[in-house]
Amino acid sequence: MLTTIVIIITLAVLILVHEWGHYVAAKKSGVKVEEFGFGFPPRLFGKRNKEGVLFSFNLIPLGGFVKIFGENDSEQKEPGSFAAQPARKRALILAAGVLMNVLLAYLLLTAVQVVGVQSGFEGELPPGASNPMITVIDVAKGSPAELAGIQAGDGILQIESQGQIFLTSEALGRKDALTEFRNFIEAQAGKEIVLQIRRGNDELVVSATPRIDPPLGEGALGIGMLKTALIRTPWYKAPWEGLKLTGRLLSVFIGAIGGIIKEAFTTGTLSESLTGPVGIVKITAQTVSLGFVFILQLVAILSLNIALINILPFPALDGGRLLFLAIEKLRGKPLKREVEQWANAFGFFLLILLMIFVTIKDINRFF
After folding, report:
1. Whose CA, among 226, 257, 339, 341, lies 20 to 30 Å from 138?
2. Residues forming a β-bridge with 68
């Protein structure tokens, strides 16, 4: 139930922030906004403000929309119409949703820096860091860890075997903590060990038996791991650190999207890293169990992805409309209304088709 609520709120926030960007940019540009919808139709009720904008509340609570006068009619040149505005104003209105998604991600990532986040580190424990643990980043299929119910994101606090105790908080003060951890596990091969783990706000105790002869690269327990600690950034440094993190994530995601597009064109297949609604639900469910700060990080990551996908120069997306606007500037006149409408309709059809394929792929992968 909690996962469902988080998913609905997350989608609503991401889409409403995007549409709010279009709304504010349109109003600042002198363009008439006809409706700002919370959720998707059918409409439940609505109220107009003094400027005549209808704020509607709709039945399906998965986001929202903004209806701008003259947005879908390039020939509608009446005052206050989107189509009557110079190209730079129309470009700003079209790009504003993407900019708001990036801004949201930046604000969330900055807040996370102040609150503190469980982050990976190398070498010795950073000054001022707290809550050190060994965090599981991957669990091999069929491994003792998977059979014990250990999940990616779990923090290992302690291991006990036949009276011997490995306390990770003590070991993490040393450079070779991970090596010591592996050696301890391997020394208990074939014997039952008891692990105390932290999952979100809960502490659990599980039992596992490390393998004597594990598959190459998996280790006796079958986990990938990372040294992590709760690292906080002083409030006066957080805006800059948040900006740097936003930039790094944008760079990573741009590279990932480029790789997905390249793979699709060169091999004719969808990348394994591509996921859709089912995958996002699965990831959200795992994130909810980790705690509030991780949810904020996930929302920031999704917001950046929405921004980058929307800015792609593909029909039916904001980037596609910006592409048509660029063509208009080069030609000195807009494309025929029918051409743009057909291109957007075809682009929307392809996006729906892609969503169906990705959803089927996710179902096969996760179920």
Report:
1. 257
2. 33
Q: How far apart are the first and last CA of the chain?
A: 20
Residue 22 has pLDDT above 90, yes or no: yes
Contact 143, 222 (CB under 8 A): yes
Query: Any idea which of 1-15, 121-135, 176-190 has the lowest mean pLDDT?
Result: 121-135
The span from the CA of 140 to the CA of 362, in Å, is 19
Q: Distance of CA 181 to CAs 133, 141, 159, 160, 169, Å?
A: 11, 21, 9, 12, 12
Query: Closest Cα partner for 69 from 129, 26, 121, 101?
Result: 26
Beta bridge partners of 102: none
Q: Which two tokens stand for residue 337?
A: 């209304």
pTM for this one? 0.81
- Report the pLDDT averaged over residues 291-311: 92
pLDDT of residue 60: 80
Cα 262 to Cα 26, 234, 269, 316, 361: the distances in Å are 35, 41, 10, 21, 19
119-231 CATH, one of 2.102.10.10, 3.40.50.620, 3.40.50.1000, 2.30.42.10: 2.30.42.10
Query: Pseudo-torsion of CA 11, 13, 16, 20, nearest 10°?
Result: -150
| 269-292 tens-digit pLDDT | 767 777 777 788 888 887 887 778
DSSP lists the bridge partners of residue 43 as 58
Cis (ω within 30 of 0) for the bond into 42? yes
Going from the C-alpha of 264 to that of each of 174, 278, 320, 363, the distances in angstroms are 45, 21, 19, 20
Domain ranges of the chain: 2-116+239-366, 119-231
